[in-house]
């Protein structure tokens, strides 16, 4: 009689199984949704599981629940985020009636008409800028941002406008994460960066001169409440066609108008 050969599980597989049992299902479901953050299209189960760091079997099971609830949708054998998330996303305070985005929109529209450039509204979330609104025209410059997208705050005009009116812990967290050199113009020296924030605080205006993307310049001003930045407004254009200094008055006035209405 031939003895059956039983494979001994490796430490790695045991650790993965144990992790799968101990992490709450709701946490894993949220990890699955977060896997779509930078996706440009539909994702397969294997890719979702890899990005979320969960076993494929777990991803398949939880995706079926998320699909029934409307949080994801099937596209053949792949998945997309569902419309239910759009509804929930627009129910957060900053997007609801009387929230920052609604209050800002008429002012952003006027700023767009006045400048003819890309106009954006952002907030500070941790050490990143999160974009709430973006107004473009057919012939405006291609700005590598999207509503709901994140960008490191230290290299953006929006981010610097808000950091200059943030507490020391927030600024310290940005420095602790390291100043990333996205282009040759990006600030990577902490002392120089802090000096720029002091200037921004004094003038209430911040610039991005090709720090995020070569060929792109930007000017931004903070939206303030009780001396702290709750958001910021910016205008962006091509470096060869747009001098951000000429839009300073428009941007500052827009941010101040939004601040007054929020206040």
Describe it.
With 263 residues, the chain is of the alpha+beta class. It has two domains: 11-87, Winged helix-like DNA-binding domain superfamily/Winged helix DNA-binding domain (Arc Repressor Mutant, subunit A), CATH 1.10.10; 93-262, Beta-Lactamase, CATH 3.30.450. It has helices at residues 11-22, 25-34, 45-52, 56-69, 83-89, 100-115, 157-163, 168-177, 190-203, 248-262; strands at 72-75, 78-81, 118-125, 128-135, 150-152, 206-209, 216-225, 228-238. The chain has a six-stranded antiparallel sheet with strand order 5-4-3-8-7-6, with helices on both faces. Strands 1-2 form a two-stranded antiparallel ribbon. Helix 2 crosses helix 3, helix 2 (25-34) packs across helix 4 (56-69) and helix 3 crosses helix 4. The radius of gyration is 23 Å and the shape is globular.
What descriptive keywords fit this protein?
six-stranded antiparallel sheet; two-stranded antiparallel ribbon; alpha+beta; Arc Repressor Mutant, subunit A; Beta-Lactamase; globular; 263 residues; 2 domains; 43% helix
User: Largest sheet, if any?
Assistant: 6 strands, antiparallel
- What is the helix/strand order? HHHHEEHHEEEHHHEEEH
- The CATH superfamily of the largest domain is GAF domain
Tally of separate helices: 10
- CATH architecture descriptor text of the largest domain: 2-Layer Sandwich
CATH class of the largest domain: Alpha Beta
Query: What share of the residues does DSSP label as strand, in percent?
Result: 15-25%
Q: Provide the domain count.
A: 2
Basic shape: globular
Please give the alpha-carbon distance between the first and last residues. Answer: 84 Å
* Low-pLDDT residue spans: 1-9, 11-19
Largest sheet strand order: 5-4-3-8-7-6
